[in-house]
Amino acid sequence: MTTEDQAATHRATLERLGADGGPLTAQSKTATAQNPEWFNVRRGEPRQDRRRLHNEILARFVESRPEVRRDKKAIVLAGPPGAGKSTAQAALIQATRTQPEHWLPINADDFKDELLQQARQDGSYDSYLVPDEVRALEAAGEKFYPRELAALVHTESSILAKKARNEALESGMNVIIDGTLGNEKQARILLDRLQAAGYDVLVADVETTQTVSEARTMSRWERGYLDAENGTATGLDAELGGRWVPQSFPASLFNEPSDTESICAANAAAIAADYGCVSEYQVYRVADKDAGPKLETTQGRAKAGGPLVDSETLAAVRAASTNRSTRGHASRTGKDFGR
Protein backbone atom coordinates (compact mmCIF):
# COMPACT_ATOMS: atom_id res chain seq x y z
CA MET A 1 0.00 0.00 0.00
CA THR A 2 1.29 3.43 -0.94
CA THR A 3 1.63 5.69 2.11
CA GLU A 4 1.32 9.43 2.66
CA ASP A 5 5.12 9.62 3.05
CA GLN A 6 5.56 8.02 -0.37
CA ALA A 7 3.00 10.45 -1.79
CA ALA A 8 5.04 13.33 -0.33
CA THR A 9 8.18 12.03 -2.06
CA HIS A 10 6.33 11.77 -5.37
CA ARG A 11 4.89 15.26 -4.87
CA ALA A 12 8.41 16.67 -4.49
CA THR A 13 9.38 15.00 -7.77
CA LEU A 14 6.38 16.54 -9.55
CA GLU A 15 7.20 20.00 -8.20
CA ARG A 16 10.79 19.65 -9.41
CA LEU A 17 9.80 18.47 -12.88
CA GLY A 18 7.17 21.21 -13.14
CA ALA A 19 9.48 24.09 -12.27
CA ASP A 20 10.23 26.71 -14.93
CA GLY A 21 12.11 25.09 -17.79
CA GLY A 22 11.29 21.60 -16.53
CA PRO A 23 9.88 18.72 -18.59
CA LEU A 24 6.38 18.97 -17.08
CA THR A 25 5.46 22.47 -18.22
CA ALA A 26 3.30 23.83 -21.04
CA GLN A 27 6.50 24.85 -22.88
CA SER A 28 8.13 21.42 -22.68
CA LYS A 29 9.31 19.95 -25.98
CA THR A 30 6.86 17.06 -25.49
CA ALA A 31 3.83 19.30 -24.91
CA THR A 32 1.20 18.63 -27.56
CA ALA A 33 1.19 22.21 -28.82
CA GLN A 34 4.97 21.93 -29.37
CA ASN A 35 4.61 18.95 -31.72
CA PRO A 36 5.19 20.27 -35.28
CA GLU A 37 3.23 17.34 -36.73
CA TRP A 38 0.13 18.45 -34.82
CA PHE A 39 0.58 22.23 -34.61
CA ASN A 40 1.98 25.15 -36.49
CA VAL A 41 4.08 25.90 -33.43
CA ARG A 42 5.01 29.44 -34.41
CA ARG A 43 1.38 30.44 -34.96
CA GLY A 44 -0.03 28.24 -32.19
CA GLU A 45 -2.61 26.71 -34.52
CA PRO A 46 -3.54 23.02 -34.90
CA ARG A 47 -2.88 21.37 -38.24
CA GLN A 48 -5.62 19.67 -40.25
CA ASP A 49 -5.53 16.25 -38.57
CA ARG A 50 -5.43 17.83 -35.13
CA ARG A 51 -8.33 20.14 -36.01
CA ARG A 52 -10.27 17.06 -37.04
CA LEU A 53 -9.58 15.51 -33.62
CA HIS A 54 -10.70 18.73 -31.92
CA ASN A 55 -13.96 18.69 -33.88
CA GLU A 56 -14.57 15.08 -32.84
CA ILE A 57 -13.92 15.87 -29.17
CA LEU A 58 -16.20 18.92 -29.26
CA ALA A 59 -18.96 17.02 -31.05
CA ARG A 60 -18.89 14.29 -28.37
CA PHE A 61 -18.84 16.98 -25.70
CA VAL A 62 -22.05 18.62 -26.93
CA GLU A 63 -23.79 15.35 -27.85
CA SER A 64 -23.28 14.05 -24.30
CA ARG A 65 -25.44 16.92 -22.98
CA PRO A 66 -28.66 16.82 -25.02
CA GLU A 67 -30.78 18.58 -22.38
CA VAL A 68 -28.81 21.84 -22.30
CA ARG A 69 -31.21 24.79 -22.53
CA ARG A 70 -30.75 27.69 -24.93
CA ASP A 71 -31.85 30.66 -22.83
CA LYS A 72 -28.63 32.67 -23.31
CA LYS A 73 -27.65 32.51 -19.65
CA ALA A 74 -24.10 32.19 -18.36
CA ILE A 75 -22.58 31.52 -14.97
CA VAL A 76 -18.97 32.74 -14.88
CA LEU A 77 -16.92 31.31 -12.02
CA ALA A 78 -13.83 33.01 -10.63
CA GLY A 79 -11.33 32.32 -7.88
CA PRO A 80 -8.13 30.39 -7.16
CA PRO A 81 -7.95 26.59 -7.54
CA GLY A 82 -9.21 24.51 -4.66
CA ALA A 83 -11.47 27.27 -3.36
CA GLY A 84 -14.62 25.20 -3.84
CA LYS A 85 -16.03 26.43 -7.15
CA SER A 86 -17.62 23.04 -7.85
CA THR A 87 -19.56 23.21 -4.57
CA ALA A 88 -20.63 26.80 -5.24
CA GLN A 89 -21.64 25.83 -8.77
CA ALA A 90 -24.11 23.27 -7.43
CA ALA A 91 -25.72 25.92 -5.20
CA LEU A 92 -25.88 28.42 -8.07
CA ILE A 93 -27.63 25.94 -10.35
CA GLN A 94 -30.11 25.04 -7.62
CA ALA A 95 -30.93 28.73 -7.13
CA THR A 96 -31.90 29.03 -10.80
CA ARG A 97 -34.49 26.26 -10.33
CA THR A 98 -32.85 24.27 -13.12
CA GLN A 99 -30.92 21.00 -13.17
CA PRO A 100 -27.19 20.44 -13.90
CA GLU A 101 -28.03 18.80 -17.23
CA HIS A 102 -29.61 22.07 -18.38
CA TRP A 103 -26.17 23.71 -18.45
CA LEU A 104 -23.04 23.20 -20.56
CA PRO A 105 -20.06 23.29 -18.17
CA ILE A 106 -16.91 24.49 -19.91
CA ASN A 107 -13.74 23.71 -17.99
CA ALA A 108 -10.32 23.26 -19.59
CA ASP A 109 -9.57 20.47 -17.08
CA ASP A 110 -12.23 18.29 -18.71
CA PHE A 111 -10.55 18.76 -22.08
CA LYS A 112 -7.20 17.87 -20.51
CA ASP A 113 -8.74 14.53 -19.54
CA GLU A 114 -10.05 14.03 -23.08
CA LEU A 115 -6.65 14.74 -24.61
CA LEU A 116 -4.84 12.47 -22.16
CA GLN A 117 -7.28 9.64 -22.84
CA GLN A 118 -6.88 10.17 -26.58
CA ALA A 119 -3.10 10.02 -26.24
CA ARG A 120 -3.32 6.74 -24.36
CA GLN A 121 -5.66 5.30 -26.98
CA ASP A 122 -3.63 6.29 -30.04
CA GLY A 123 -0.24 5.48 -28.52
CA SER A 124 1.12 9.02 -28.52
CA TYR A 125 1.13 9.11 -24.72
CA ASP A 126 4.05 6.67 -24.66
CA SER A 127 5.59 7.52 -28.02
CA TYR A 128 5.60 11.31 -27.65
CA LEU A 129 4.03 12.84 -24.55
CA VAL A 130 6.00 11.22 -21.71
CA PRO A 131 9.32 13.10 -21.24
CA ASP A 132 12.60 11.19 -21.01
CA GLU A 133 13.02 12.26 -17.39
CA VAL A 134 9.69 10.66 -16.49
CA ARG A 135 10.57 7.49 -18.42
CA ALA A 136 13.78 7.17 -16.43
CA LEU A 137 11.99 7.61 -13.12
CA GLU A 138 9.32 5.08 -14.10
CA ALA A 139 12.02 2.61 -15.10
CA ALA A 140 13.43 3.06 -11.59
CA GLY A 141 10.03 2.22 -10.08
CA GLU A 142 8.24 5.57 -9.60
CA LYS A 143 4.75 5.52 -11.12
CA PHE A 144 3.27 8.57 -12.82
CA TYR A 145 -0.41 9.06 -13.65
CA PRO A 146 -1.64 10.87 -16.78
CA ARG A 147 -3.13 13.85 -14.90
CA GLU A 148 0.32 14.51 -13.47
CA LEU A 149 1.37 15.28 -17.05
CA ALA A 150 -1.59 17.63 -17.61
CA ALA A 151 0.69 20.64 -18.15
CA LEU A 152 1.72 19.02 -21.44
CA VAL A 153 -1.82 19.40 -22.79
CA HIS A 154 -2.53 22.75 -21.09
CA THR A 155 -2.28 24.93 -24.18
CA GLU A 156 -4.30 22.55 -26.33
CA SER A 157 -7.01 22.15 -23.69
CA SER A 158 -7.34 25.94 -23.53
CA ILE A 159 -7.83 26.05 -27.30
CA LEU A 160 -10.58 23.44 -27.00
CA ALA A 161 -12.28 25.23 -24.11
CA LYS A 162 -12.28 28.52 -26.01
CA LYS A 163 -13.71 26.88 -29.12
CA ALA A 164 -16.38 25.09 -27.08
CA ARG A 165 -17.33 28.40 -25.47
CA ASN A 166 -17.55 30.26 -28.76
CA GLU A 167 -19.67 27.58 -30.42
CA ALA A 168 -21.98 27.40 -27.39
CA LEU A 169 -22.51 31.17 -27.41
CA GLU A 170 -23.31 31.13 -31.12
CA SER A 171 -26.14 28.69 -30.44
CA GLY A 172 -27.41 30.42 -27.28
CA MET A 173 -26.64 27.53 -24.93
CA ASN A 174 -26.75 28.07 -21.19
CA VAL A 175 -23.10 27.81 -20.13
CA ILE A 176 -21.04 27.56 -16.97
CA ILE A 177 -17.58 28.95 -17.63
CA ASP A 178 -15.33 27.54 -14.94
CA GLY A 179 -12.04 29.43 -14.68
CA THR A 180 -10.15 31.75 -12.37
CA LEU A 181 -10.48 35.20 -14.04
CA GLY A 182 -6.86 35.62 -13.02
CA ASN A 183 -6.14 37.58 -16.20
CA GLU A 184 -8.13 40.81 -16.46
CA LYS A 185 -7.59 41.19 -20.21
CA GLN A 186 -8.94 37.71 -20.91
CA ALA A 187 -11.81 38.29 -18.46
CA ARG A 188 -12.87 41.37 -20.42
CA ILE A 189 -12.59 39.54 -23.74
CA LEU A 190 -14.93 36.89 -22.31
CA LEU A 191 -17.47 39.46 -21.11
CA ASP A 192 -17.26 41.30 -24.42
CA ARG A 193 -18.29 38.06 -26.13
CA LEU A 194 -21.11 37.36 -23.68
CA GLN A 195 -22.47 40.89 -23.90
CA ALA A 196 -22.30 40.95 -27.70
CA ALA A 197 -24.14 37.61 -27.81
CA GLY A 198 -26.98 38.98 -25.65
CA TYR A 199 -26.33 36.82 -22.59
CA ASP A 200 -27.65 37.31 -19.07
CA VAL A 201 -24.62 36.70 -16.83
CA LEU A 202 -24.07 35.78 -13.20
CA VAL A 203 -20.49 36.23 -11.96
CA ALA A 204 -19.60 34.18 -8.88
CA ASP A 205 -16.21 34.62 -7.23
CA VAL A 206 -15.14 31.92 -4.75
CA GLU A 207 -12.33 33.28 -2.61
CA THR A 208 -9.86 31.96 -0.09
CA THR A 209 -6.27 32.58 0.99
CA GLN A 210 -3.15 31.35 -0.79
CA THR A 211 -2.44 28.97 2.08
CA VAL A 212 -5.89 27.38 1.86
CA SER A 213 -5.80 27.21 -1.95
CA GLU A 214 -2.44 25.44 -1.86
CA ALA A 215 -3.52 23.06 0.88
CA ARG A 216 -6.79 22.12 -0.82
CA THR A 217 -5.29 21.56 -4.28
CA MET A 218 -2.54 19.44 -2.78
CA SER A 219 -4.99 17.45 -0.66
CA ARG A 220 -7.19 16.85 -3.71
CA TRP A 221 -4.25 15.52 -5.71
CA GLU A 222 -2.94 13.38 -2.84
CA ARG A 223 -6.35 11.82 -2.24
CA GLY A 224 -6.69 10.97 -5.93
CA TYR A 225 -3.14 9.66 -6.13
CA LEU A 226 -3.45 7.40 -3.10
CA ASP A 227 -6.87 6.12 -4.20
CA ALA A 228 -5.46 5.23 -7.63
CA GLU A 229 -2.36 3.65 -6.13
CA ASN A 230 -4.25 1.62 -3.56
CA GLY A 231 -7.05 0.43 -5.83
CA THR A 232 -9.94 2.38 -4.31
CA ALA A 233 -10.39 4.86 -7.18
CA THR A 234 -13.07 4.22 -9.79
CA GLY A 235 -13.73 5.30 -13.37
CA LEU A 236 -11.48 7.98 -14.83
CA ASP A 237 -9.86 8.61 -11.45
CA ALA A 238 -8.50 5.06 -11.46
CA GLU A 239 -7.07 5.52 -14.96
CA LEU A 240 -5.84 9.11 -14.79
CA GLY A 241 -5.03 9.55 -11.08
CA GLY A 242 -5.27 12.72 -9.01
CA ARG A 243 -5.44 16.16 -10.62
CA TRP A 244 -2.02 17.73 -10.22
CA VAL A 245 -1.73 21.49 -9.70
CA PRO A 246 1.80 22.82 -9.04
CA GLN A 247 2.00 25.09 -6.02
CA SER A 248 3.31 27.87 -8.24
CA PHE A 249 -0.12 28.25 -9.83
CA PRO A 250 -2.12 29.25 -6.72
CA ALA A 251 0.82 31.48 -5.74
CA SER A 252 0.64 33.28 -9.09
CA LEU A 253 -2.91 34.42 -8.30
CA PHE A 254 -1.97 36.35 -5.14
CA ASN A 255 0.01 39.57 -4.96
CA GLU A 256 1.32 38.62 -1.52
CA PRO A 257 1.20 35.27 0.34
CA SER A 258 -0.58 37.00 3.24
CA ASP A 259 -3.39 38.46 1.10
CA THR A 260 -6.89 37.45 2.17
CA GLU A 261 -8.13 37.21 -1.41
CA SER A 262 -6.69 36.57 -4.85
CA ILE A 263 -6.27 38.90 -7.82
CA CYS A 264 -9.28 37.06 -9.26
CA ALA A 265 -11.47 38.99 -6.79
CA ALA A 266 -10.57 42.40 -8.20
CA ASN A 267 -11.05 41.18 -11.77
CA ALA A 268 -14.43 39.62 -10.99
CA ALA A 269 -15.62 42.77 -9.21
CA ALA A 270 -14.45 44.97 -12.07
CA ILE A 271 -16.20 43.07 -14.85
CA ALA A 272 -19.36 42.74 -12.77
CA ALA A 273 -19.45 46.51 -12.32
CA ASP A 274 -18.46 47.40 -15.88
CA TYR A 275 -20.67 45.11 -17.95
CA GLY A 276 -24.41 45.66 -18.01
CA CYS A 277 -25.02 42.05 -19.06
CA VAL A 278 -24.03 40.97 -15.52
CA SER A 279 -27.35 40.89 -13.71
CA GLU A 280 -25.97 39.34 -10.53
CA TYR A 281 -22.60 39.19 -8.76
CA GLN A 282 -21.88 36.92 -5.82
CA VAL A 283 -18.86 36.38 -3.60
CA TYR A 284 -18.31 33.16 -1.67
CA ARG A 285 -15.55 32.65 0.87
CA VAL A 286 -13.79 29.57 2.20
CA ALA A 287 -12.44 30.10 5.72
CA ASP A 288 -10.09 27.13 6.00
CA LYS A 289 -9.03 23.98 4.19
CA ASP A 290 -11.84 21.90 5.70
CA ALA A 291 -14.67 24.40 5.19
CA GLY A 292 -17.09 24.74 2.32
CA PRO A 293 -17.77 28.00 0.46
CA LYS A 294 -20.15 30.36 2.24
CA LEU A 295 -22.09 33.07 0.40
CA GLU A 296 -20.78 36.42 1.65
CA THR A 297 -22.05 39.06 -0.79
CA THR A 298 -24.79 39.35 -3.39
CA GLN A 299 -25.22 42.33 -5.67
CA GLY A 300 -27.40 42.84 -8.70
CA ARG A 301 -28.86 45.36 -11.09
CA ALA A 302 -32.22 46.75 -10.07
CA LYS A 303 -32.77 47.85 -13.65
CA ALA A 304 -31.20 46.75 -16.91
CA GLY A 305 -27.94 48.60 -17.48
CA GLY A 306 -28.07 50.24 -14.06
CA PRO A 307 -25.39 50.07 -11.37
CA LEU A 308 -24.91 47.09 -9.07
CA VAL A 309 -26.79 47.47 -5.79
CA ASP A 310 -26.72 45.48 -2.57
CA SER A 311 -28.98 42.51 -1.96
CA GLU A 312 -31.38 44.38 0.33
CA THR A 313 -31.99 47.13 -2.22
CA LEU A 314 -32.30 44.56 -4.97
CA ALA A 315 -34.86 42.52 -3.02
CA ALA A 316 -36.93 45.61 -2.26
CA VAL A 317 -37.00 46.73 -5.89
CA ARG A 318 -37.92 43.26 -7.10
CA ALA A 319 -40.66 42.91 -4.49
CA ALA A 320 -42.15 46.25 -5.50
CA SER A 321 -41.91 45.31 -9.17
CA THR A 322 -43.63 41.98 -8.51
CA ASN A 323 -46.45 43.72 -6.65
CA ARG A 324 -46.97 46.17 -9.50
CA SER A 325 -46.94 43.36 -12.04
CA THR A 326 -49.52 41.46 -10.02
CA ARG A 327 -51.81 44.49 -10.17
CA GLY A 328 -51.23 44.69 -13.92
CA HIS A 329 -49.65 48.16 -13.82
CA ALA A 330 -46.07 47.24 -14.72
CA SER A 331 -43.80 44.50 -15.89
CA ARG A 332 -40.79 43.24 -14.00
CA THR A 333 -38.01 45.78 -13.46
CA GLY A 334 -34.43 44.82 -14.23
CA LYS A 335 -33.11 41.29 -14.38
CA ASP A 336 -33.33 38.38 -12.01
CA PHE A 337 -30.81 35.79 -13.11
CA GLY A 338 -32.39 32.44 -13.88
CA ARG A 339 -35.40 32.99 -11.67
UniProtKB/TrEMBL annotation:
In terms of InterPro entries, this protein maps to: P-loop_NTPase (IPR027417), Zeta_toxin_domain (IPR010488)
Q: Which UniProt keywords apply?
A: ATP-binding, Nucleotide-binding, Plasmid
- State the residue spans of region: Disordered: 1-30, 319-339
Reaction equation(s) it catalyzes: UDP-N-acetyl-alpha-D-glucosamine + ATP = UDP-N-acetyl-alpha-D-glucosamine 3'-phosphate + ADP + H(+)
The UniProt record lists the EC number as 2.7.1.176
Q: Where is the Zeta toxin domain?
A: 69-115, 131-251
Single GO MF annotation: kinase activity
The broad enzyme category this protein falls into is: transferase
Tell me where on the tree of life, at the top rank, the source sits.
Bacteria
The entry sums up its family as follows: Belongs to the zeta toxin family.
What's this protein's name?
A: UDP-N-acetylglucosamine kinase
Q: Which organism is it from?
A: Paenarthrobacter ureafaciens
